[in-house]
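Support request, please re-run this one:
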Amino acid sequence: MDTITRGDVLAILEPIWLEKTETASRVRQRIRAVLDWAAAKGWRKSHNPVMWDEVDRALPKASKVKQKSHFAACPYADVPATLQAVRTSTATDLVKIMFEFAVLTAARSGEVRGMTWGEVDAEAHAWTVPASRMKANASIACRCLSAPATC
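Re-run finished. Output below.
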């Protein structure tokens, strides 16, 4: 642990930094966590926290390298055909139901996967997602579970 240098870290990160920036960024974080932990345990006497600033300066900023790619949205007119394709697919019944539920409620997949019966008010035909499970962790979303005209 005591012999790992900035050059060693860069030798690991540089080959993947431009092609797999997100992965490389996570690897960097994990290496830092391990080396910081080793320093705290006294196993890394040559520990220099400034090394991470030097590593950052040696690599292009992740925000400048990372290509942002988004999934294309399904055109509104194609939604019925898409849902039918999912219904007739070889996916499990649970996956099919969750996919359709996500589409019909405009919910994020993580919100749907984490849904519990305690979040559902059957009488009000409403599903309330707790703030702790929301992406912004700041608000509560209520999704209507009945026909839009009744919401």
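The two ends are 61 Å apart (CA to CA). The chain has a mean pLDDT of 86.
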